[in-house]
Write a structure and sequence with these properties.
binds S-adenosylmethionine, 6 helices
């Protein structure tokens, strides 16, 4: 049986290289998005999106996924040290390309900031979704008026952009904003 293709690194906060997570929380704060369910692709060891969401008092709840053993361990330690954060922020280990939609709730905000960065042919061996199928999965999970967020500073944006633009046409989403490095699309209410 094929094994999961996981992220063998652990990513700290390197704002100058990869500001997307800070820009996600900046976006939510700038728009006063509150009492929302947020899905976040790629937690880092810093778990910024979850921690900031607890600290900024907007009342948002975050589900994050990581494919890094060290990042998952960092979450375990965070949950022990800061139960008030773990109440509103859950991070889990897994391959985003093998998510089961029936196990997921609906979301108001989905941040697929690393689209196309980590989908490898090796994942075909265990029936992983394609990048387009991943976007479609979360489209079906997005509440009316929900925000779909992509990262235009991604190292894979040249591959992600055509997928995103075709998806927006097919699914009837409008790009509502370029916020810092993020392309934001809204689902019609
Ligand atoms: C370059 S790091 C960026 C972390 C963080 N978003 C940041 O910008 O600081 C990439 C992130 O994607 C996650 N990742 C990579 N492949 C993944 C996969 N197949 N499923 C879920 N997460 C994955 C890693 O665990 C890591 O958190």
């Amino acid at each position: 049986m094929a094994k999961m293709s996981y992220y063998t690194d652990a990513w700290g906060m390197f704002y100058d290289v990869c500001p997307c997570d800070v820009h996600v929380t900046d976006y939510l704060e700038a728009h006063g998005v509150k009492d929302a369910n947020v899905f976040h692709f790629g937690t880092g060891t810093h778990h910024h999106v979850g921690i900031r969401s607890q600290e900024n008092g907007l009342g948002n709840r975050v589900l994050g996924i990581t494919a890094s053993i060290e990042e998952a361990e960092a979450y375990t330690k965070l949950a022990i040290e800061r139960p008030e954060v773990s109440r509103i922020y859950k991070a889990f280990f897994g391959d985003i390309y093998v998510l089961e939609p029936k196990l997921l709730p609906n979301f108001d905000v989905v941040a697929l900031v690393h689209l196309c960065e980590f989908r490898t042919p090796a994942m075909d061996a265990y029936g992983a979704l394609t990048d387009r199928q991943l976007v479609d999965l979360f489209t079906a999970k997005l509440n009316p008026g929900g925000h779909m967020i992509f990262y235009t500073g991604s190292m894979a944006w040249d591959r992600a952009q055509p997928i995103v633009e075709q998806w927006a046409k097919d699914a009837g989403f409008d790009k509502t904003e370029q916020f810092k490095t993020l392309a934001v699309y809204r689902k019609k209410s």
